[in-house]
Amino acid sequence: MALRWADFITPSTLQLAPLLELLLEPIQTAEQLATLQLGLQEVLVNAVRHGNGNDPLKCVRVRRILTPRWCVFQVQDEGPGVPPQARLAALPERLDALSGRGFFLIHQCFDDVRWSRRGNRVQVALRRA
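and the corresponding structure tokens:
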């Protein structure tokens, strides 16, 4: 069985439901589907809002590969990247802060989170049931 990456490129918009549906179409386990939907939604929103600055002229690239053991997604934006010290998996000190919970949520949803050196691409992976 040859495994191949599936590539998706979309304009930078918060209308993410059609893309999420397409990305998650092969997932059949309800629990994993819910976890992936929540985690990917957060990754994609971060790419659009923070990476691409809500600029509809910029794109978000998503790659997906499903192996017998892993669901792996790479999400890349056209922004300057997240600095290493900002990639924390912790909640903000003030829980009523307007932002800062996204990376915590991403780390809760995925078993593995890896950043590119530049910080504008994140790879997230969830072990399959």
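(Above: one complete record from the training split.) The chain has a mean pLDDT of 92.
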